[in-house]
Amino acid sequence: MGQIVQAAKITHVPSIWMSHTMKKYKGIRQPAIDGYAKLRQDAIDRGVETFIVFDTHWITNQGFHLNAKDHHKGRFISHELPHMLADMEFDYRGDSALAHSILNVLEERGERAMGHAQPDLGMEYGTLLPMHFINEGVNARVLPVAVNQFSSIEENRRWGAAIAEGIRRSDRKVSVLASGSLSHDFTPNERSVDGLNSVNGEFNRQMDLRVLDLWQNGKWAEFLDLLPDYAVKCTGECAMNDTALLFGALGWKEYEGRIDIYTPYFGSSGTGQANISFSV
Question: Model-level pTM?
Answer without folding.
Answer: 0.98
